[in-house]
Specification:
The complex is a heterodimer of chains A (about 110) and B (about 110). Chain A is mainly β and about 110 residues long. Chain A is built from no helices and 11 strands. The radius of gyration of chain A is 14 Å and the shape is globular. Chain B is an all-beta fold and about 110 residues long. Helix content of chain B is about 0%, strand content about 55%. Chain B has no helices and 11 strands. In chain B, the strands form 2 sheets. In chain B, strands 2, 4, 5, 6, 9, 10 and 11 form a 7-stranded mixed β-sheet that branches. Chain B starts with a strand and ends with a strand. The interface between A and B is medium-sized, with 25 and 25 residues.
Chain lengths: ~110, ~110
């Protein structure tokens, strides 16, 4: 049972524009969320996180928004750059004995075009 | 810091053979995770260790899969016998108690023919 869902398998965006990646979760116990970025033939690398006590976290061009009532989070990349072309994974954890145990979404492939 | 080191990078084996994947976590990290990545399901947690002890192996698909962590610097994931549906990229990740963020290895691409 997929508790973290990324319903868009791919996203194409023009360089300089905003990329918006969406992630939905079903487990109301989740209280910590991460986004990872993955290039081909490499492991995922940490991008940005947010805990449930916040509804927004910003780091440079990357901003993550959390809507707890909707069980939805999104990642905004502004402005998008060609180097942002990668697969982005949303991950969530929370609840009893959940430390470090993340559920990942299936990923969204982002392609930034010139 | 060399990061999380996995070997081999690629493995092609015949159905029925035993496959062993290896992982060296980051020194000082006390938690280690094995994930499997497939196109359909993304990254699935197979098992994780805390201080070399298996904490949760509920993600291990079946008895053909086993994992060990004999010491803080080494872990193995074994599949015996392997089947074509085991073909995937297997990632190892480690983390410390200071942060919940994982550091992933580069993965092992397993192909079972």
């Amino acid at each position: 049972d997929q508790q973290v869902k990324q319903n868009s398998p791919s996203l194409s965006v023009q360089e300089g524009r905003i990329s918006i990646l969406n992630c939905d979760y079903t487990n109301s116990m989740f209280d910590y969320f991460l986004w990872y970025k993955k290039y081909p033939a490499e492991g995922p690398t940490f991008l940005i996180s947010i805990s449930s006590i916040k509804d927004k976290n910003e780091d440079g061009r990357f901003t993550v928004f959390l809507n707890k009532s909707a069980k939805h989070l999104s990642l905004h990349i502004v402005p998008s750059q060609p180097g942002d072309s990668a697969v982005y994974f949303c991950a969530a954890s929370g609840g009893t004995d959940s430390w470090g145990k993340f559920q990942f979404g299936a990923g969204t492939q982002v392609v930034v075009t010139p | 810091d060399a990061g999380v080191i996995q070997s081999p990078r690629h493995e092609v084996t015949e159905m029925g053979q035993e496959v062993t994947l290896r992982c060296k976590p980051i020194s000082g990290h006390n938690s280690l995770f094995w994930y499997r990545q497939t196109m359909m399901r993304g990254l699935e947690l197979l098992i994780y260790f805390n201080n070399n002890v298996p904490i949760d192996d509920s993600g291990m698909p079946e008895d053909r899969f086993s994992a060990k962590m004999p010491n803080a610097s080494f872990s193995t994931l074994k599949i015996q016998p392997s089947e074509p549906r085991d073909s995937a990229v297997y990632f190892c990740a480690s983390s410390s108690t200071v942060t919940e963020r994982y550091t992933f290895g580069s993965g092992t691409r397993l192909t079972v023919v």
